[in-house]
Amino acid sequence: MSQADVVWRRRQRRETRHLLVSVLPGALWIFIFLVLPSAYLMSVAFMTNGGFGQPQMPLTLDAFRNLAGFGFLGWSPGNLYTLWRSIFQSVISLALVVLVAYPVAWYISLCRPRLRAIMLLAVVVPSWTNQVIRAFGWMNLLSPGTPLSSLAEKMGLIAPNMGLFPSDFAVTLGLVYNFLPFMVLPLYAAFEKLDHAQIEAARDLYASPLRTFFVAVLPQTLPGLLAGSVLVAIPAFGMYVIPELLGGGRSQMLGNLVASQFGEAANWPLGAAGALLMLLATLMGLFILRRMGRRLGGGTEMVI
Amino acid sequence: MQNRGFKKGLAVFWWLTLIFLYAPLLVVMVFSFNAINTSARWGGFSLRWYERLLNNDVVISAIGHTLLLAVISSIIAVILGAMIGYGLYRHRARRLGLLIVLIYLPIVMPDIVFGIADMAFFVQINRLTGLLSPGLSTMVIAHVTFQIPFVALIVYSRFVGLDATLFDAAKDLYASPWQRMLHFILPTLKPALLSAFFLSFTLSVDDFVISFFTAGPESATLPIYIWGAIRRGISPEINAIATLMIASVALVAVVSLLFNRRRA
To answer: Taking every annotated instance into account, which residue ranges of this chain make up the domain ABC transmembrane type-1 (chain B) (predicted)?
Structure first.
């Protein structure tokens, strides 16, 4: 072994020690207080409910059968409705968020550069407020007797004295409100790089505005749209606060089902099975994002 | 699309969206000064809900818990996160894929799963060892866990933005590792550390779900108090607390913006 080899090795060892010392404390923290607890929670999903909500041996798949609606008293569709509502609400709110975010992101990208930073900030600032307070604001705006509710009543959209809240509609609105910035930011990043010559070319060739959008704008902003979709749909699927406050008990989503199993309903394995489902959805979203990002290129510069 | 009408239409839509974004917050703020006990009607200006807040011991202690939790957790997170950020940068040539997955995990994890996993874990640890009974300590642990990644990413991107030859320059001038740390790394990192601290602080104050599931009976923070108050029935007192929280977030935002501008 030559002198240089020894020096190189010693240096390598020192570098490894440096890496461990700098990274290990934080990494261990996340491992002990997030990875281990999640692993424990996942294992609870395969245990038996011990009566007071405490998980027990033996290992079974009861929790998943429970989640699918099979209980003591035979099958009931309650949980499946909740699941369906989670999927439905996240898809609907995603669609509405896209409809609102496209014009907003486009407009911001057309303004003067100095103005753009302020406009983006204006979109993001409301989401710095606690989400309980934001949901509470909507409760104030939508409850029976408020101008918006009276208007909806006069137009015959809702039954008298019911108010727009609590309802499925209020939950959808709350989700759109909550997740709009998550779509505007990545879409704006895409619009900023938009090649306007393509739009002009489409118009020169007498494409209709709609056709121009689908041929010249959509393909160019697709990476932003996909990133935004994952950032909106996945968290919306597991939303807890908004259905709880704005849905008023009748519009439960998966997050509420899970939370109630760890509280008053006291069935930890069932709750853990629901949590496992949410984690799988998250992993699926991330996987899609990575695949798409690779195919479209540039998907790695995601906005968090 | 240079079409004039098109841009005007977009402008109208933009202002409508702004109204949509700020209406719920404004309603809360305006009705916190309402003289009567409803959010449906305006009954004149009054400060009675704010007076009531000052005499509410539960609210005062909730404010204390919120601030204490945010400060302690942010300090721990800034230290641990900055170390990770530095480690990631210095060893960026190595394959650190698994580490990066670990760091992104708290960000991508649904917060309800995060909160419940920690709650279930803490309950079991407590049953086996008697340690970690739910309270401020469990909340600090959970908050640090979701703050670390943001700190690490901010610090890392600050390092990436630096001229890498600066490190060699420091070495060429025979600076010892400690001197490098004291005279080069920490000073250049100061703005990043401060903004990481502010971000961690806001994340902590903003969090409800994870706090809710890791809190103990004696450690309710403001968001948890507001949640309980809403469930008991809407009172304009909540408007007043919420207004204070909105105002303080706006203040922090303005301060950090001014700070950023000065740096730029």
So the answer is: 63-259
